[in-house]
Structure formats: structure tokens, C-alpha cells
Design a protein that fits this description.
CATH topology of the largest domain: Rossmann fold
Shape: globular
CATH class of the largest domain: Alpha Beta
């Protein structure tokens, strides 16, 4: 089997050989590695050929025209045709000199459409006129969701008009009076502020489910023995059978070999970046003590959260009305396609507002994932009901950015928006405070200044908090009190782990927007020794296309020297300076000037504002990149590439620095821009743990470091269940101890980390259907399944049956001369009399002993027949006994 990705194929090819003959050619998905379709032939072209002529390859290669379909129409410019041997195009239809001279113009009589200023009623009036005058009308939506919104608005306002809606990337329409033709788009109706063209579906990131990869020297967590070091997968001969074991090292160099079938007891240690966990000894005493201490703390933490949740449930709250016509129009004017997560978050927030219980919802998602739109939809609903909205942000510069975004989005709607910040004069602030008290302001945006005593509202209905974890202790206490009296929506740009959001779902309402917006181009990342020539070219290239640049130098004592050096070869450029020792006012002024374009390049330490969305900044230059952690670099790089421009990241390391292997790996991980490698997933998980700390608080963040993230989440979930009165039952896992060589051979799947992933997947399936799908996948990806792997699948099927029957153990007994003994868990609800009657059909092969054990007399059976008989017997037992 050979996999290759030819330059002329969208999908990679999988070629199946039988000896030296090709049996099959398949196209396969690079993400899932599964085959998608079979093809009969594949013409593979070289990735590059030297000394190519303009339109023809060298004489040993194929002609350029061979790649054109037979019905291709060739348009020739005379000058080009003379430089190319055009005889190879003789089989095609050809048109020469198609461009008209400048003085020969033709007027099609096209006219601009009238302006509707976002008013759907004006569009409907014009539509009726066109219909009366018998115009052909073509209405275009950008995407399926916009089509549905336009259909709903037409159905609501003019049900008698049947107008087909097409989907296409048309920004603006036009009128052709002579042809009685109208082409109109959603953008023409709603006068959107900007349309972004949909680009090819590149993904700069992916949804993070779990981290399966484990490499030698990684820290691991064993549920019974604690944190140790993974030393690799070992293939050992135990009692005349080979099996794979996880080799773990503990304090003092002690070794623990864990059978791969017990992998559930072992998790990769995931903790805060840079945290070196304690290595435990194999006695397990201190580990158990730590777990017990943290369990008690988790119980108190979960109880406090549940009490707050219960108190809120009994408080009355204003019930907002369902969506009005204006809200539907506002939703229809959204210029992007909502991601499924974003649409779900909007629906959840609206449901909370309509209910009679006070809302306390957290919406989590990265910058640019659409949290602000969720807040705007909620804000409009509240404002239209005659109540006020307060949007709290941690910094003045963020307040200004939100103010610009809100005023632009709401400019055609009856909503009055204001901002209270230090950029307002004293007189302006006094007028804003007066208008706020008199109810003349619908949405107020500001920092913690909005929490001060002199601030009064006429009728506050909703508080939106952006990045709450960045507020001070005093502000957080005030916000906590607010939650009992008014609907609250919190926005967070730091992701949290999905499993944690599920655990918290009964304690706080959580909406997670984790689907990245489609269409973002991947960020091109370059790693190089420090080079002023490249820096000059990168800066000028960005400025020439109207953009701005972040320049990161992480040492405050030498940052001014860096600016002076840059000015030597970029004298005409205006540089801004930002670092942590500047006062808050100085920092805000600098960021304000950068935001408004007064500075072209911002030279700063790593304190670049994490919440800012600056679509004009599309080049990032990092000095001494080897000194940064992977998550830090990932976050820094996330500051660019927010708009529809291609973004560039330059990571420079010092010429005199000898890069360590780990530093080089960190930098190389960032070049994986279209899919996430394990290094990048690790960076994302580190960000998620920071997010967990933001939601849970600093003490819980510390516990994650001590236990590892996976075990922490499991213990938290157990404590929450206890408090709710739910049964906390650990999953009963059957044990198997009988001679069977069941493993994934190294010559079948050579990469040990991939073998571990498949072990986990095969031994975690919960149905025979899943098992069959897994088998098909192995066959598809790696070819014919060897006998030890077939045995592994048989073992997995046995595990499924054993769990349903509440079997505790199946083991070989010497006293039975190769037979097997089956024991049940004490709580197994089995009808013993029924089993006795059933086993009479297997007289001489199976007998019941001491009301607890089943003995299978299989000493004359070969190994492969033993597993077959056992599986068949347990299937029949499941069907014929009451469990």
C-alpha cells in the first residue's frame, strides 16, 4: 500500500498493490485517512520541472494543452500568441484579440439600484412596483442562512409574493430597464457595512476533543499510582504470549508495566505550561492523600456554585417578548454566515431572556468567532423592550473598539448607543450620566467606571461582561451581586475544555463557540536567523497594502534600542511603544493611536492586547522567538490574520544562539498552519487550561496543575453528581486472563503513538457496529488485518458482552486443564436458575459452580476456537438470561 499526494489531485491517492500489480486506486480524506472513492486511473504530474518554457513543458514532458478539456475555448492576445508555439492548440476553438480598443465602448444601459438604507419596507414598496411593471426579478443571498432569513421576512410581510431566492457570492445587483431585469442582493437591501468574500475553506485550527498522542518522556497520570514518566511501548513475552505494555517510570527509577488493555487507568498529564509536576512513588500513599484533599475542596467549590445557581432559580426576572419584526430584519442583515455554534449560542441567549428566570450565561470563543454578534442580538431585544444594556469591558481601548462596532451595526436601528471612557471630556461624561439616568441611552459601553456609585440607570435590563477574569477583585464582587438582580451575559475569549464545559453545564449556563469561521487564509509563518533585510521588506510590504505591523521584543531594558535600530533603515515609519512598565493611561493612549492608524508599527513586549480585534494588522515580527513558549507564540500569532488579507508571521532567533531541540520543535510547530500537529494541539490545550482557571478561579487552576486536567475534570464531575444526589458509580471493567496473543504488530502499524491511539479506540468501543467500522478503517488504511489484531477485535467484542452481563473476570484455570472460569460482580442482576437451565444445552462444556462462577471446559479446543466458542456462548447467554 502506497499513499501519495500528486500536485494535480485535490485529494491524496492510496494505491493498493498485490506483489507488483496495482489492484486498486483510491482517493482518501487527509483528515480521517479513510478512502472516499475508487478511481480507474491516475495521471500523476511532477511537482516541479526545471527549465520550463512559458506555456510548454520540456520535450520529455507533457504539453500544456493536454490538460485542457476538449471543449475549451482559447482566448489569444496577439502578442502572447507570437511567443508561443500555438500549433499544439490547433484542436481547440480559438478567438484572437478579444479586447476592444479603449475608444470603442458599449453601454449596456445598466443602472444602480435605489438605496433602501437597510429598510425592508422600502424594498417591499419597490418590489411591488417592479412586479406591476412586469420585471424579471432575481434575488441573491450570500448563503443558505441568509436565504432562510429573507424567505421568512417575505413570508411575514408579503405572503402573497412568491419570489425565488438564489444563493451566490454576488455583492451588489443592478437594473436593466430595457430588458426589464432586476438583479438584487441581500447587501443591496440591508446596506451592510462590509461584505467579506468567502475564501477557500482553510482551517487555521480545529475543534479539540482530547489529546491522544503520547510520546516517550511525557508526564502521565495513573489513577492509582499518580504522576510518572512514560518511557515507551514495550512488546513483552509473558507466560508464552506476546503483548504490548505501557512502560511507566516512578520516583527512584521504579518501573510499572501497564497492559495496554488497562489504558483507561492512564492519562497523559496536561497541566499549565511550564509547570513541572511532582513524580510520585509506587506506594501510592501520598497520591491518595492529595486526591482526598482536592476532592474535599472540589465538593465545597461545587456546593457554592450550586447554591448560587439554586438561589437564582427562585428569583423572578423580566420575561422579554419573542423576536419582533425588527429583530428578524437585524438578523437578516448580518453579513456573515452564522457558524452552527454561533447560531446555537444566539438561540440559547434568547431563550434565557424570554424565560422568567434571570440569565447568567457565559459565551466562550476566540476573538473573531462571533461572540459580539451574540451580545448585539441580546442587546437589541432588551433595548426594544424599553430596558437598558450595560456592556462592561476591562480596558478603555476595548470600550472604544466595541463602541465603533456597535454604532456601525446599529446605525439603521432605533437604538441609542454611548460610551463612557477617559477619552470623553468631563462635559461629555456629565451629559452621558444624565441621559443614562433619564433613559435616553439604550446601550452604554464602558470600563469598571460603570460600576461606580454615581452611575444610575432608569431601567437596567441586561449586563454584558467582556473578559470578566481581567477585572479587579472589587469589580468582581459588584458583578457577583448584579447577577441576582439583572440578566447577565459574560463573554470570554479564552477557550475552556469541552469536558469541563459539560461538567459546568448544570452549575452555570455555558455556550461554547468553538467552530472557527470558514474562509480565513492560513497564516504564513517563516522561521529565520535575525535579518534586518527581511524585516525591512516585510514592514514595507505590509504598509504598501495599507496594513499595520506588530513587532515583538520581550525585553523592556533594550526595547528603545530596538526602535532606534528600526528607525535607521525605516526612517519614514512612525513607531509606537507598548510595555508592562508604562502607566495604564500611557498604554491606552498608545493603543488608541495605533488603532486609529497614527502609528504604522507597534513595538511591544508580549503584552499585546489579547482581546483586540485589529483586522488591519496582518504582519507579526517576533525577535528572540526561541525564548517564548509554544502557547505564547500561538497567542501572539493569533493577533493577526483576523481580516480577509493574507497574514505573515516572522519568527527570528538570535544568530549567536544555539537552538535547543525543544525550541526548534516549538518554532516548527507554528509552521503547521492548515492542520494542527500534536505540538499545536498541546498549545491549544494550554490555552484551554488557562480558560478553565478564568472560569473556575485561581485555586482550582492550581489543582489542575497538581492532578492533571483529565483527572481533575473527572473528580469535579463526581462531586457535582454527589451534591445533586445522583449515584456516582465507576464503570465496571471486566478483566481477562487467558492465553491469547492479541495486539497490533509493529510491522502493521510502525508508529507507536498511532498504535496507542488505535488501542484506545478499539478497546473503548461500546457496540459491535463501532467495532466493525474500526475494523473497516484498519483494513482501509493499513491493509489485511493480521491474526493478533483479529484476536484484539475478538477481545474487544468479548469486553462489550462482558460489560452487559456484569462479568467481573474471565480467566484460565489450571485445574480445568485449559478451561475458563467466569465470575460476576456481586451486584450483577442475573437469574441464576435461568442460567442453570440454559447451560444444560452445553452439558459437558459449561457448568455452574457455587452460585457465582461459570466454568467452561475447553481443554480440547485450539486457541482460536476457544475465543469463538466463548463469544458465541456469551451472546446466547445475553439473549436467554434476565440481566
Amino acid at each position: 500500500m502506497v499513499d501519495l499526494w500528486a500536485a494535480n489531485f485535490v485529494l491524496p491517492l492510496r494505491i493498493i498493490f498485490f506483489e507488483n500489480k496495482i489492484e486498486e486506486i483510491r482517493l482518501f480524506d487527509v483528515t480521517t485517512q479513510r478512502s472516499k472513492e475508487n478511481i480507474q486511473e491516475a495521471k500523476i504530474i511532477p511537482a516541479s520541472i526545471e527549465k520550463q518554457t512559458p506555456l510548454a513543458l520540456n520535450r520529455n514532458g507533457s504539453g500544456f494543452a493536454e490538460y485542457f478539456p476538449k471543449n475549451t475555448l482559447i482566448f489569444w492576445d496577439i502578442d502572447v500568441k507570437e511567443t508561443v508555439k500555438s500549433n499544439e492548440f490547433s484542436d481547440f476553438k480559438q478567438v484572437e484579440n478579444v479586447l476592444l480598443p479603449a475608444h470603442e465602448t458599449f453601454n449596456f444601459g445598466a443602472q444602480d439600484l435605489p438605496s433602501f438604507n437597510g429598510k425592508f419596507t422600502l424594498f417591499l414598496e419597490e418590489l411591488e412596483t417592479w412586479i406591476k411593471e412586469k420585471y424579471k426579478i432575481y434575488l441573491y443571498a450570500q448563503n443558505r442562512q441568509e436565504e432562510e432569513r429573507l424567505s421568512a421576512l417575505l413570508e411575514e410581510k408579503k405572503p402573497e409574493i412568491s419570489l425565488p431566492i438564489f444563493i451566490g457570492p454576488l455583492v451588489n445587483g443592478f437594473l436593466l430597464p430595457e430588458m426589464k431585469l432586476v438583479i438584487i442582493t441581500g447587501n443591496d437591501i440591508f446596506a451592510r457595512y462590509k461584505i467579506h468574500y468567502r475564501l477557500p475553506k482553510f482551517r487555521s485550527g480545529g475543534i479539540l476533543e482530547h489529546l491522544s498522542e503520547i510520546q516517550p518522556s511525557d508526564y502521565i497520570v495513573h489513577e492509582q499510582y499518580g504522576i510518572g514518566i512514560y518511557r515507551g511501548l514495550r512488546h513483552l513475552l509473558i507466560e508464552n504470549k506476546y503483548a504490548d505494555f505501557l512502560s511507566l517510570e516512578y520516583k527512584g527509577g521504579d518501573k510499572l508495566y501497564v497492559p495496554i488493555t488497562d489504558f483507561r487507568l492512564v492519562q497523559k498529564y496536561i497541566g499549565p505550561q511550564g509547570h513541572r509536576p511532582r513524580i510520585y512513588s509506587l506506594d501510592g500513599i501520598s497520591w491518595e492523600r492529595l486526591k482526598q484533599k482536592i476532592k474535599e475542596s472540589l465538593y465545597n467549590f461545587a456546593r457554592e456554585l450550586l447554591q448560587v445557581y439554586a438561589q437564582r432559580q427562585i428569583l423572578p426576572a423580566y420575561s422579554f417578548p419573542p423576536d419582533s419584526y425588527i429583530e428578524k430584519e437585524f438578523a437578516a442583515s448580518f453579513p456573515y454566515e452564522e457558524t452552527p455554534d454561533q447560531a446555537k449560542a444566539i438561540e440559547e441567549v434568547k431563550t434565557d431572556l424570554i424565560s422568567s428566570k434571570p440569565m447568567d450565561r457565559v459565551v466562550i470563543g476566540d476573538v473573531g468567532y462571533g461572540k459580539t454578534e451574540v451580545a448585539m442580538r441580546a442587546g437589541l431585544k432588551v433595548a426594544l423592550a424599553g430596558k437598558q444594556v450595560a456592556l462592561l469591558v476591562p480596558t478603555t481601548i476595548l470600550a472604544e473598539q466595541h463602541y465603533r462596532t456597535f454604532t456601525e451595526r446599529f446605525k439603521e436601528y432605533p437604538v441609542n448607543i454611548e460610551m463612557l471612557s477617559r477619552f470623553r471630556t468631563k462635559r461629555e461624561q456629565e451629559k452621558i450620566l444624565s441621559d443614562l439616568k433619564n433613559g435616553l441611552i439604550d446601550i452604554i459601553i464602558g470600563t469598571h467606571r460603570l460600576l461606580q456609585k454615581d452611575i444610575g440607570f432608569k431601567d437596567l435590563g441586561l449586563v454584558v461582561i467582556d473578559e470578566e477574569h481581567r477585572f479587579g477583585v472589587g469589580a468582581k464582587e459588584k458583578l457577583k451581586k448584579l447577577r441576582f438582580s439583572v440578566d447577565t451575559l459574560t463573554l470570554s475569549a479564552t477557550p475552556i475544555p469541552r469536558t469541563l464545559s459539560m461538567t459546568l453545564s448544570g452549575l452555570r449556563e455555558v455556550s461554547v463557540i468553538e467552530t472557527p469561521p470558514e474562509g480565513r487564509l492560513p497564516i504564513e509563518t517563516c522561521i529565520s536567523i535575525h535579518n534586518d533585510g527581511i524585516i525591512k521588506k516585510a514592514v514595507l510590504s505590509e504598509l504598501n497594502r495599507g496594513g499595520q505591523v506588530f513587532y515583538v521584543h520581550n525585553r523592556i531594558e533594550t526595547i528603545l534600542t530596538v526602535i532606534n535600530r528600526l528607525k535607521n533603515f525605516l526612517p519614514e515609519i512612525k513607531f509606537g511603544l507598548a510595555h508592562g512598565q508604562m502607566s495604564a493611561r500611557e498604554l491606552e493612549k498608545t493603543m488608541h493611536k495605533f488603532l486609529t492608524g497614527e502609528y504604522a508599527v507597534l513595538v511591544s513586549t508580549s503584552i499585546i492586547e489579547s482581546g483586540l480585534d485589529l483586522p488591519r494588522v496582518n504582519t507579526l515580527i517576533v525577535e528572540n522567538a526561541e525564548e517564548f513558549g509554544l502557547a505564547q507564540l500561538y497567542q501572539l500569532r493569533g493577533r493577526i490574520g483576523r481580516g480577509d488579507q493574507k497574514a505573515y508571521c516572522y519568527l527570528f532567533y538570535n544568530r549567536d544562539t544555539q537552538l535547543t531541540e525543544s525550541a526548534l520543535k516549538r518554532l516548527q510547530a507554528l509552521t503547521e498552519f492548515t492542520s494542527l500537529g500534536s505540538g499545536m494541539r498541546l498549545a491549544l490545550r494550554d490555552l484551554e487550561i488557562r480558560g478553565a482557571g478564568n472560569v473556575l478561579g485561581p485555586q482550582q487552576h492550581g489543582f489542575i496543575g497538581e492532578l492533571g486536567y483529565d483527572l481533575y475534570c473527572r473528580l469535579l464531575e463526581e462531586e457535582v453528581k454527589k451534591l445533586r444526589g445522583e449515584t456516582v458509580s465507576k464503570e465496571k471493567e471486566p478483566l481477562f486472563d487467558f492465553p491469547l496473543e492479541a495486539h497490533l504488530p509493529e510491522n502493521y502499524i510502525p508508529v507507536s503513538s498511532i498504535r496507542i491511539i488505535f488501542y484506545k479506540r478499539i478497546l473503548s468501543v461500546s457496540s459491535t457496529k463501532e467495532l466493525k467500522e474500526m475494523k473497516d478503517e484498519l483494513l482501509d488504511r493499513f491493509g489485511k488485518i493480521p491474526e493478533p489484531t483479529e484476536n484484539l477485535f475478538s477481545l474487544a467484542e468479548l469486553r462489550i458482552l462482558a460489560k452487559k452481563l456484569m462479568i467481573k473476570e474471565i480467566k484460565s484455570k489450571k485445574s480445568l486443564r485449559g478451561g475458563l472460569e467466569i465470575s460476576f460482580f456481586p451486584e450483577a442482576n442475573i437469574d441464576r436458575e435461568k442460567i442453570k437451565r440454559f447451560t444444560e444445552n452445553y452439558r459437558g462444556k459449561v457448568f455452574f459452580l457455587q452460585e457465582k462462577f461459570l466454568h467452561l471446559n475447553l481443554h480440547n479446543f485450539p486457541q482460536e476456537r476457544t475465543i469463538f466458542f466463548l463469544t458465541k456462548y456469551l451472546l446466547n447467554l445475553l439473549e436467554n438470561s434476565k440481566i
